[in-house]
């Protein structure tokens, strides 16, 4: 009995090593791909003047825990399929089954691995990611307000996201506090469709940034310039020469409503359990760890390849199942936010569907 227990521990460590090794390799490769995409995305924001270039590394670093929480269930799913698939293809697991390692014992070992992975994902989703999302939004907001000139690129006309404002500076100091030859063109309110849309054009020798102490709104204070106001093509316009003039330039928001919800602490979501948007966010955070465990159960029968069958043959249908699972979760989350689904139903129906698929797959593989 002692020898059997000792052998079982050795086999368990061997299987866990194989699965965790593949899990880490798959997750690392996918993380590199997705973080590269995020880096390109934030580079485009910096190039368009939406965020300062000196916080790119920090913003990209904030994305890593969130991506890990999404990729770990997929890494575990593929790790089990690839690891056990290789062992089945090489007849190692079949020999172990013949020597007394039952499929129930293999399932128990896999469930322990899945439980540990799910706990890591649960900690990321419930506590770490909301805190990091809040820090990321705070960093973006503080830098956009405190360093408005840092988002401008010298020698380039930059158009706002709504197309109603054009800003140009010829030169910016190294500390991004002073600018030379400032040009701002801003669309005004349309008073009459027949006349046209008025524009305010401002040209100044220099400018610097200022934050209103009361409203905390960012302004560019320009010195020694002219302000032109009128409708293009019309002779009725105003010219004002000024010594100093403050221009309010609102920053484009890089966060949507869903990103704001992601920064809400979990305990606050629990207190507002009747709000559909809060319910959708809370159930999303719980669903990702649950999906890791369910995907592990699905991966066990899918990994049982025949002796001369390639272990990669099942990858395509396995990835298709994963895509369907995730798309159902995303769709259910949107339906909850739109109040189409009942909050009591939540996202549980998605997990129930996949559990039925797991049972069907187990029965097909055992026959």
Q: Outline of this structure?
A:
This protein is α+β, with helices and mostly antiparallel strands.
Could you walk me through the main structural features you see in this protein, from its secondary elements to its overall organization?
This protein is an alpha+beta fold and about 375 residues long. The protein has 9 helices and 6 strands. A 6-stranded antiparallel β-sheet has the order 1-2-3-4-5-6. Helix 7 packs antiparallel against helix 8 (about 315-335) and helix 7 (about 275-300) runs parallel beside helix 9 (about 350-365).
For this structure, the quaternary state is: single chain
Shape: elongated
Encode the helix/strand succession as letters: HHHHEEEEEEHHHHH
- Straight-line distance between termini: 32 Å
Strand tally, please?
Answer: 6
Mean pLDDT: 85
Helix count? 9
**Helicity, in percent?**
55-70%
Biggest beta-sheet profile: 6 strands, antiparallel
Spans of at least 5 consecutive residues whose pLDDT stays below 50 are none
Strand content: 15-25%
Rg result? 29 Å
Main traits of this protein?
single chain; 367 residues; alpha+beta; elongated
Topology (elements, then pairings):
Layout lengths: L1 H46 L8 H34 L2 H7 L4 H44 L11 E2 L5 E8 L5 E10 L11 E13 L6 E13 L6 E12 L8 H6 L3 H6 L4 H27 L12 H23 L10 H19 L1
Antiparallel strand pairs: 1-2, 2-3, 3-4, 4-5, 5-6
Helix pairs in contact: 1-2, 1-4, 2-4, 2-7, 2-8, 4-7, 7-8, 7-9
